[in-house]
Amino acid sequence: MSTRKITKSFVDKLGFPETGQAFHRDNTLKGFAIRVTSGGSKAFILEKRINRKVRRITLGRYPEITVEMARKEALKYLGEIATGVDPIAKRQQQEAETLTLWQVWQEYRRVKSNLKDKTYVQYEMYFNGELKDWKNKRIVDITKDMIVTRHNRLLSTHSPSYANTAMRILSAIYKFAKGQYEDNSGNSLFPHNPIDRLGQLKAWAKEPRRQTLIKPHQLKPLYIALQDMKFNTGAESDHVAADYILFILLTGLRKNEAATLTWDNVDLQEGTIHIPDTKNKEPLTLPLTDVLSAILSYRYRFRINDYVFSSRKKGYFAYPEHSLKYLVEQSKIKFTFHDLRRTFITVAESLDISSYAIKRLVNHKSGSDVTEGYIISNHDRLRAPMQRITDFFKVQCEINKDDINGN
Hints:
Layout: E1 2-3, H1 8-13, E2 21-25, E3 32-37, E4 42-50, E5 53-62, H2 67-82, H3 87-96, H4 101-111, H5 117-127, H6 144-157, H7 160-180, H8 196-200, H9 216-232, H10 236-251, H11 255-259, E6 266-267, E7 272-275, E8 284-287, H12 290-301, E9 310-311, E10 315-316, H13 321-331, H14 337-350, H15 355-362, H16 383-397, H17 401-404
Parallel strand pairs: 1-2
Antiparallel strand pairs: 2-3, 3-4, 4-5, 6-7, 7-8, 9-10
């Protein structure tokens, strides 16, 4: 380290260290220095105690900026520090304020790389849809009033659920930004979430809980349409979809839980399936009934990869909506995939199966029920109630196990 007045001729004559870096400090402006590295770079810096800690500010590289320019920049920073301004925090804030909604979303994806694929798909659907005009907007420019206005606009053109989901996605981005971007003191560069205005005004839309399900008298025509789709359309996707939809109806599984079921999580000898990745993060093991075993045995004959309900495009049956639409049109019964799960639960309740057993079957969390916490339930204890549910569907649909094979 050397100390002398830093001039252009001095900087031009400076050699580079063989390893690491060396500092040459100015003897007329305290804290002003030039740093040279073994990599061949020269940069002006300013060192100053800020908030009781010595901080180093890079002013710029030489010759991109001159000695005179660097000295003026150092004086500007020293003036800010003298008046209580932290120039490092100020610079970080200025850089952060250039971030757009789309840029923060890309960082969100990078950091939260363990989220489900459908989460990323849903977010981008909104960013490329109703929020498209905000993609390149700086997040500091999206105000509370803009949030309220956009939410009201979405409520006028879409369902309450759609409008609320758009705002929840934005809120997730702002919450991420609050924790991700901080100054050198650990303070958030984005402390405010404009979506909070909806809560303050109690403006979140009420989302009526869906109560739709497949009624008992609709089960037989639905099953007939399923069998027709399975064996008569000639489409491989319909062939898979028919078993997939019946499987969901008889297990109460969520759409994606059934679609991603793999053969290594099927034990036909023991009569169980295992779902390791569920919505509530608690693995689920279900006993198989006679019809479920028949479906899986049949599907095993047509296996093309590791997934039970396979697809040549995605690997697993990821896009069943086309088959569902066809089935609704043919059966004249309007329903969604979640209606299948809702029907399973309703049937279980109608058979007077205990609420504890139903919760285990559909993998609902126990909540605050203390008594339930003492009950140990395994899949063998669920086998009898599971078969009772299947027997109900067998009667209503007039299912014969030979139907599964098309006999």
